[in-house]
Amino acid sequence: MPQITAMIRLKNIEKSYDGHRVLSGFSADIGDSETVILFGDSGAGKTTLLRLMLGLEKPDSGSVDIAGMNFSAVFQEDRLCAHADAVENVTVVTKTLSAAVAEAELKRLLPEDRHHMPVSELSGGEKRRVAIVRAMCHDADAYLLDEPFTGLDEDMQQKAMEYILEKTAGKTLIITAHEEWQYDKGRKIAVG
Fold first, then answer.
1. What pLDDT digit, counting tens, does each position of 4-46 carry?
2. How many CB atoms lie within 10 A of CB 60?
3. Fold for domain 1-70+140-192?
4. 182 pLDDT exceeds 70?
5. What is the DSSP letter of 3?
């Protein structure tokens, strides 16, 4: 196996919540342009690892080195602006993204007649697709996707994965999953 030049280095991470240890001595190096699947049971610490990489939380001990990277993320909850439509939710990620570009990107995963509806009126799966497109439209060094295909049927999961892989080509991609076998791309790292 080739040596990884780490862009993200997690070393001896310890993290507990209310006395319950979630991560114990977790270490991993994630390379530039690498696709990684963090898999494990619910509560194993996958989301916590993403939050640590994003700087939303600090480890109890250990270190997180992200080498000055900027990130784009899909969280478990969609975090969309409910009153805004799908196009507005996508264009909010960058000042230079036009509505026309946002619509072209949304067409890849969402029917056109859903683009200008308030996202509060979209189904759970449609909201998820808007969240994915929004994250992919942000130019980042690394993309962190927490259970990105929740609420999507098998065909849409495949279509969304193809879209994500295309948009993140040459970038670092980290996806959390419950099962290792859910994804055939990337290096698998067990959590928990």
1. 566 899 999 999 999 999 999 999 999 989 999 999 888 899 9
2. 14
3. Rossmann fold (3.40.50)
4. no
5. P
Owner of token pair 């056109």: 112
Which bin fits 6, alpha (ψ -120 to 50), beta or left (φ > 0)? beta
Nearest to 142 by CA among 47, 46, 73: 73
Q: What is the pLDDT of residue 94?
A: 79
For the residues 154-163, what does the mean pLDDT come to?
94
Within 8 A by CB and 6+ apart from 131, the residues are: 74, 75, 78, 79, 80, 148
| Widest CA span in the chain | 49
Any residues with CB less than 8 A from the CB of 126 and at least 6 apart, and which?
A: 86, 110, 114, 119
Give domain limits for the chain.
1-70+140-192, 81-131
CB atoms within 10 A of CB 10: 22
Residue 179: exposure state from Cβ atoms within 10 A (0-12, 13-18, ≥19):
exposed
Q: What is the mean pLDDT of the chain?
A: 91
d(CA 182, CA 149): 10
